[in-house]
Amino acid sequence: MRITVTVDGTSYTDDVEPRTLLVHYLRERLGKVGTVVGCDTSNCGACTVHLDGQSVKSCSVLAVQADGAEVGTIEGLARDGKLHPVQQAFHDNHALQCGFCTPGMIMQSLDLLAENPDPDEQAVREGIEGNLCRCTGYQNIVRAVRDAAHHMRPGAGPDAER
Ligand code: FES
Ligand code: FES
Questions:
Q1: CA–CA separation, 22 vs 67, rounded Å?
Q2: Tens of pLDDT along 67-76?
Q3: How many angstroms is it from 141 CA to the middle of ligand 2?
Q4: How far is residue 5 CA from its own chain's centroid?
Q5: How many CB atoms lie within 10 A of CB 116?
Q6: Which atom of ligand 2 is nearest to the CA of 99?
Q7: Ligand 1 atom at minimum distance from 43 CA
Q8: Comparing C-alpha atoms, which of 154, 35, 140 is closest to residue 91?
């Protein structure tokens, strides 16, 4: 089936098998290997991307379901050599060790912050509960998301700029 999908701001038209998962289309056809596969069974969240602005586990979406949609991946966040504030906050707060969960964790955090720009610890934990990390114990991830919220808040002031 022929699909046209916009990924990180660039439009692609491709013929895909109806059974092709979005995550495999992104990685294998488009080379967007920043989006990773941890389980392939919609449990770990490592493959999280945005589909028309909502976070989805791209191993649970068919590529044909993204036809006509806008997909955002971790690879579209940094601009002009500058990390996105959520990426920067993960770096600053040592919120990753092996880094395998990090692309999905960041994409899910962005979705959470779009819905709740000032989440408390509990709200962050609930917001990322579908994303598993085997390394960090989550404490620094929660800290990073709250730090990113602080820096992304409108009117946070020049000292909040990154
Ligand atoms: Fe998609 Fe684990 S690879 S949820
Ligand atoms: Fe290793 Fe999260 S940093 S799985």
A1: 10
A2: 999 999 999 9
A3: 10
A4: 17
A5: 14
A6: 3
A7: 4
A8: 140
ipTM above 0.95, yes or no: yes
Alpha helices in 42-138 (DSSP H): 85-92, 102-115, 121-127
Q: Collapse the DSSP code of 56 into the 3-class scheme (helix H, G, I; strand E, B; otherwise coil) and give the result.
A: strand
Question: Which residue's C-alpha comes closest to atom 1 of ligand 2?
Answer: 98
CATH superfamily of the domain spanning 2-76: Beta-grasp domain (3.10.20.30)
Check whether domain 85-160 has CATH 1.10.150.120, yes or no: yes
Taking only the tens place, the pLDDT of each residue in 8-58 is: 999 999 999 999 999 999 999 999 999 999 998 999 999 999 999 999 999
> Shortest CA distance to 56 belongs to which of 68, 45, 67?
45
DSSP 127: H
Per-residue pLDDT tens over the stretch 88-134: 999 999 999 999 999 999 999 999 999 999 999 999 999 999 999 99
What token pair was written down for 18?
């109806």
Boundaries of every domain in the chain = 2-76, 85-160
Counting every residue written for the chain, the total comes to 162
